[in-house]
Amino acid sequence: MCSRYSLTLPPETVRAYFGYRDTPNFPARYNIAPTQDIAVICVDKEGNRIFRLMRWGLLPHFVKDPKAFPTLINARSEEVLSKPSFRNGMKWRRCLIPADGFYEWTGPKGGKRPFLLHPKHGKPIAFAGIYERWKDADGGHMDTVAILTCPANDVVAPLHDRMPVVLPPEHFAAWLDVQGTEGKDAVALLKSAPEDLFEAIELNPKINNSNLDEVGIQELLQGQLL
Q1: pLDDT for 16-50, tens place per residue?
Q2: What's the domain range around 220?
Q3: How far apart are CA 159 and CA 50, in angstroms?
Q4: Which pTM does this prediction carry?
Q5: How far apart, in whole angstroms, are the C-alpha atoms of residue 135 and residue 4?
Q6: Number of domains making up the chain
């Protein structure tokens, strides 16, 4: 499961890590939420990595009315080739989603405790994603994307049984190459993150408000680790 995440590192750091040619100057995002436009790395027809903005919440091509269709922010990696909503994206439109952490919650309703899952190395991370270009009846279009998930590793499991798939840099090329890497081979790349990648840090509950996205929103709760 991934319903909120962050990308706060400088644009030049993200660009160097993902190797795209564009030079976008995007702001730090501390509390990225579904239906918002998010940073996505895909490839053009020549195979060059490019930076794009897409709406977080996949709309398959067969959707007639987006308002009547559920918001598909995640796709289970085990089902991504069998589900009609995800199958074409997995075969032909794979992407990387830059991040530097994601959030999970634990506890009873009304008393949820938020945790930041932060990579110990302090570098960017890449969520595996799939995207679609949805077109309306008038010829307009919208690029939409979903984050792939897998079973949680031991660090994330106390908070949730799922986690976003994090691809290491050595798998970027194979994942993005939809011509050279067939869907079944791409699925084999979708594994839980190493146990030593993340640490879970409890945050102040103000992060629970998805409308807040500002410096200081990642305030630690007495620096508590899970």
Answers
A1: 999 999 999 999 999 999 999 999 999 999 999 99
A2: 5-225
A3: 34
A4: 0.96
A5: 26
A6: 1
